[in-house]
Amino acid sequence: MRAMGRAGAVALAAGLVLLAVAAGLDRAFPPDLTRYHDRSAEVADRNGVVLRAFTAGDDAWRFAVTPDAVAPLYRAMLVAYEDKRFAVHPGVDPLAVVRAAGQALWHGKVVSGASTLTMQAARLLEPRPRTVAAKLIEMARALQLEWRFTKDEILAIYLTLAPFGGNLEGVRAASLAYFGKEPRHLTPAEAALLVALPQSPTRLRPDRGGDGVRRARDKVLDRAVGAGLLTAAAAEAAAAAPVPSARRPFPFLAPHLAERLRATRPGEERIVTTLDAGLQETAEGLLHRLAEGLDPRAGVAALVVDNATREVRAYVGSGGYFDERRNGMVDMVQAVRSPGSTLKPFIYAMAFDRLIVHPMTVIADVPRRFGGYAPENFGGGFAGEVTVGEALQRSLNVPAVALLDRVGPLGFDAALRAVGVTLRFDRRVGRPTLPIALGGVGLTLEELVTLYGAFSHGGGVAPLRTLPAGAGSSAGTADGGPLMGESAAWYVARVLRGAPRPPGYADPEGAGDARRIAFKTGTSYGYRDAWAIGFTDSHTAGVWVGRPDGTPCLRCVGLETAAPVLFRLFDLLPDGAGPAAVAARPPPGVITGTTADLPPVLRRFADAPAVARHGAAEAAGRLRIAFPVDGSVVSLGRDRGEAGRLAALPLRAEGGRRPLRWLINDRPLGGGDWRRGASWRPDGAGFVDVKVLDADGNVSTATVFVAARSED
Which of 115, 175, 338, 341 is catalytic? Predict the structure, then answer.
């Protein structure tokens, strides 16, 4: 008994030593998982549909696959055919080794192998020549994998790395290439074929033909019947299914956005976007067909956004990615180009905000010089006296420049920068000037669509989203914020709904405001860029047409070339409810009707400023805001009695004929404050627009920054 005890102790000690040695070797020589982690990246739409995939670092198609991502029948067939004791052996199957050795001795050659799925996973991780030494290393690595990983994790390695012919590795890559589907949806015939292919991936490649492919598949089906996985009838039906004869191309939608996201999110294997794969595919096909009818070197780009969420639903960087004549690989959604007249709506909106004009104000479209600048209309000639709304609808140039002159190019530029959109100026000019109104500046399609989204949100700008909420955003650089008041946004939207339609296009019969397309076109100098940006209640979309190399483009005119594409895009979009700001009843404070219904000061646009800002009123008694001073910073203390809210901002006006009416951020001040003095309590720090109107319709404005006073 003592001898047996000592022997047991020795055996235990030896076992512990061996275990310690094994642990040390495992730590010193861990399995190399480099190939397993070098996998293809993919970009998917909002529903998980793959838009575009990228090969791994060695140019192989290799996607991560887990056992629960494949059809259960395929998994069962694989184990039954390759390694039926996979669930119980420690990485090496002793019974299989004994069987293979006995068959080799009896027949004088190798009849069957002894490789388990774990051993195959080890060989796929670290490929070696087929030698006895390599097989021994493979066995050791298999034991090591079983030590480190679960059976499902080991199976995932095999499913990801198994060869399927050519540069296809892993069952997902093979399923997508040969059947155009995810491996969880494999039929019995498809599952059997994919079990057989790794046995001899070069010889059995389906795209190279040959009866051997069918025989190999049917052998797996027979084995499945023997294992009780299929009935004889089901196997017979599967054997009658055709074998694929060619590889399918991997998805290639939204290639420009996919490259952009992959560059900004390196290392991510799966990037889910906000795009809609169906809409993206249809939009790409539409733009590709339309591009064929353009100037042979002209390209086309488009962007479609959901108004409710500001999520991009379609992103088409060019009409044909591989079209070298049109520089199709250049992403024209991000290209800086001259916007033509597409910035005019924002000039008008700021003029509406500042009560410089109203859509029914009469303005003169006549020859006029602004210093050394004398704008002319696109088609030549002048319209004479028109309403401001008509001037915007017809995209008349002199009225737009006159309003920008009143708003101020510097102020216009600052307003756009405040919401994160930066205008690019010619280096020879380097500063905002009046030609901004006619496209003398640089912007991208993405930035224009971002700005036009403000009309669907009461004047507020926010970044476009190409990634779901919580995953960050990569479209646009806008920081967001108010660009115009709610009334101004409503006025512009109403005017643009009445803009002349492109030839042969109209809104749907009986369409209400929510479905009518409000849009603006633009054509840059020299016919280099044609634009159309528009919105309905549910979507905002933009189209650019031109030559990516910046040379003049034959027949590239906004209304004739870009607008038809825009209207065709809207035909693809579903009807839907968008933000209430677009289709709802007019916001408080707007004036509808005719020119005669306006206050006298707004009935006609005069060359001399009708709006008096602080310090600009020369005549005694002219209405002006005495406090707060325009452009100042006002520090307010906190009211300890009201949860630390800021104290009230005092308001004081001088001149003008009473009664007076105060507006804060274009909203009437409550409480019947018709006096020269009033007060308003802000919710927090930030910019504030203050207006006061008198009984004659005169207006004075001041923009100030309210700050919280630091308490000592």
Answer: 341
Per-residue pLDDT band at 377 (split at 50, 70, 90)? confident
Please state whether the peptide bond connecting residue 628 to the residue before it is cis, i.e. omega within 30 degrees of 0.
Answer: yes
Going by C-alpha positions, the residue among 307, 354, 607 that lies closest to residue 453 is 307
Residue 82 annotated in active site: yes
Whole-number Å distance between alpha carbons of 358 and 361: 5
pTM, entire model? 0.79
Report, as an integer, the average pLDDT of 212-221: 94
Task: Check if the beta carbon of residue 491 is closer than 8 Å to that of residue 347.
Answer: no
CA 358, 361, 365 angle in degrees (round to 5)? 120
CA of 209: how far to CAs of 198, 205, 246, 602, in Å? Answer: 16, 7, 9, 80
Catalytic one of 42, 82, 446, 486: 82
Q: CA-to-CA distance for 676 and 407, rounded, in angstroms?
A: 26
Instruction: Give 255's Cβ-side CA count (13 Å radius).
Output: 14
Q: 711: which DSSP letter?
A: P
Give me the phi and psi of 234, to 5 degrees please: -65, -40
To the nearest 10°, report the CA torsion of 655, 661, 664, 669: 140
Query: H helices of 520-577, where?
Result: 563-572
Could you read off the pLDDT of 565-587 as tens digits, one per residue?
Answer: 999 999 999 876 555 444 457 88
Residue 543: closest CA among 256, 347, 291: 291
Does 341 participate in catalysis according to the annotation?
yes
Position 709 pLDDT exceeds 90: no
Which pair of structure tokens corresponds to residue 541?
């979309």
Rounded to whole angstroms, the Cα distance separating 554 from 524 reads 13
Check: CB of residue 660 under 8 Å from CB of residue 672.
no
How do residues 430-459 score in pLDDT, each as one tens digit?
A: 788 899 999 999 999 999 999 999 999 999
Q: What is the spatial distance between Cα 698 and Cα 610, in angstroms, rounded to a whole number?
A: 7
